[in-house]
Amino acid sequence: MQSALGWGDYGGQMLAVAEAEIRKLRHDPVELMTRAIQPVLWLLIFGQVMNRLRAMPTGGIPYVDFLAPGILAQSVMFIAIFYGLSAIWERDSGVLVKYLVSPTPRAVLVVGKALGGGVRSLSQAAVIYVLTLLLGIPLRLQVLPILLLLLFTLWGSAVFATFSLVIACLVKTRERFMGIGQLLTMPFFFASNAIYPVTLMPRWLAVLARMNPLSYLVDALRTLMLAGWPSTFGLVKDFSVLTGVLVVLIGIAARLYPVILG
Amino acid sequence: MSTWVVETSGLTRRFGALTAVDQLDLRVARGCIFGLLGPNGAGKTTLIRMLTTLLPPSGGQARVAGFDVVREAARVRQRIGYVPQMLSADPDLTGYENLLIFSKIYRVPATVRRKRIDEALSFMGIAAARDLLVRHYSGGMTRRLEIAQSLVNRPDLLFLDEPTVGLDPAARHAVWEHVQALWQQWQTTIFLTTHYMEEADALCQDVAFVYKGRMVKHGAPAALKAEAGEGATLDDVFIALTRIPMDADAPGAR
Questions:
Q1: Residue A32 has what pLDDT?
Q2: Identity of the residue in A27, A100, A102 whose CB atom sits nearest the CB atom of B92
Q3: Rounded to an integer, what distance in angstroms lies between the CA atom of residue A80 and that of residue A255?
């Protein structure tokens, strides 16, 4: 007779779910490359043009420097927010059912999925780093800031991937999801400090930006990438907000996950 | 250990006004190949979804592998394997990886994992394609891979929901042979649903007919055929059973 599962087993199951996602990426790296194109355009075209304007109060650093961490956060979010599509696809095939019939708690499945989604975003960090170095942007290249940046990238991506999973569980079909995904990315992006500082915003928008988890991700990435950039909220607060949002979203997603079948 | 690997009493599932499974009493003996037969929409898949803990019953009880499907769902999940009707192997992973991930999900100890995966793959006749992405598999190969995948945790009970739907005759026979071989090898109880009577005849020692959510007949295929008359096939039994209750169960009767 097998005994009941313990925490170690849950950890193993979570890693197995994430491993499946990572193995898929290894089989199809083309996806990662095409995803690198958009941030390159933002930095090379939008960033370069806006850089000449010198109108943005970026605290004395060139605009393109200010922009680079924002674009990393943006591309992480854009990728993660469509992650729910894979859950819908797994429902439409029989893949999801097999996971749900396995002795894996729903929350463990969701955390594993979030982690798998997070790993996808790490390649974006690599792309942005290489690009910013080529552009001659001065970066903090010490080990600790880079490790922390990878952690925040993973964390932020997990937040939006789990959010996406929640949306997928609610809307249930691919078509509706595509529409809603498009609809959600822009407000998150514009109501954040990704491409302009919060100080420039009208009051109502500044309030929204402070409620937007993307702002905390951008703040952390900017602090960790740029030398001498003063963090707006502080890294501890950035991390706490993202973790809090992640825990709540995982709780909701774990409740809704079996609902996607119905 | 109980002789019954599946035991339901008064099991019922309603979807709004529709009663998909209606007061079902069913017992399946440990170690047999059992076939749940019935036309499309008879409630077979709903019953399987309740027995695999995916769907809570609206009424009645069910025990699977000795555990209650509602109160001890996690225990049930540890003891069963399930191959759903839809293709369920991940096409973006190789055959080997599909089994690897599931052996980790089921917490198969790392020391025996490789051996079990290799064994399951060669047993189901797909060892040569192990490193190929599943998207390149044929329908019959995918189905055999899915059965292999459901074997990694050595389940007490294996659910196969319409295992050969959409397969050509050669692939169908290959699946039958493998199901029979795995049953002989491990004595795993197999609970399959089908609306192909020849499939039930080829595989099952025990069959039950469901129609409109109710059980209308339960017994050994040979006995049911004999009862239906000389030279009768399971098809004849099926047609006879699904014709009579249609009048008794006319709209408004419930």
A1: 81
A2: A27
A3: 20
Taking CB atoms and an 8 Å cut-off, how many pairs form between chains A and B?
80
Kindly state whether residue A114 falls inside one of the protein's structural domains. yes
Q: Is B106 on the interface with A (CB under 8 A)?
A: yes
- Chain B residues with CB inside 8 Å of A5's CB? 74, 78, 107
Structural domain span for residue A215 = 9-50+57-261
Q: Residue A27 corresponds to which tokens in the numbers above?
A: 């089989």
At residue B1 the predicted structure's pLDDT band, cuts being 50, 70 and 90, is low
Query: Which has more confidence, B245 or A245?
Result: A245
pLDDT given for residue B244 in this prediction: 56
The pTM is what? Answer: 0.87
If one counts every other C-beta atom within 10 angstroms of the C-beta of residue A191, the result is 21
Q: In terms of DSSP bridges, do strands B189-194 and B18-29 run parallel, antiparallel, or are they unpaired? A: unpaired
B4-248: which CATH topology? Rossmann fold (3.40.50)
Helix (H) or strand (E) holding A254: helix A235-256
DSSP structural state of residue A45: I
Across B221-248, b (16+ Cβ under 10 Å) vs e yields beebbeebeeeeebeebbebbbeeeeee
Residue for token pair 């001659």: A136
CB-CB under 8 Å, B80 with A94: no
Contact (CB<8Å) B92/A15: no
* Chain A interface includes B205 (CB < 8 A): no
Domain count of the fold of chain A:
1
Q: Which two tokens stand for residue B49?
A: 């979804």
Q: Is the pLDDT of residue B123 over 50?
A: yes
Does any domain span residue A193? yes
pLDDT of res. A177: 93
- Cross-chain residue pair A4–B74, CB shorter than 8 Å: yes
- Residue A262 reports pLDDT greater than 70: no
Q: What is the mean pLDDT of chain B?
A: 91
The residue of chain B nearest to residue A6, with distances taken between CA atoms, is B107
Q: Are strands B80-83 and B59-64 parallel, antiparallel or unpaired?
A: unpaired
Per-residue confidence band for A3, with pLDDT thresholds at 50, 70 and 90: low
**Chain B residues lying within 8 Å of A12, measured CB to CB:** 104, 107
- B239 lies within 8 A of chain A by CB: no
Q: Answer whether residue A210 is part of any domain.
A: yes
What whole-number percentage of chain A has pLDDT above 70? 98
Classify residue A2: in a domain, yes or no: no
Confidence grade of residue A240 (pLDDT, cut at 50, 70, 90)? very high
Between chains, do A13 and B133 touch, taking CB under 8 Å as contact? no
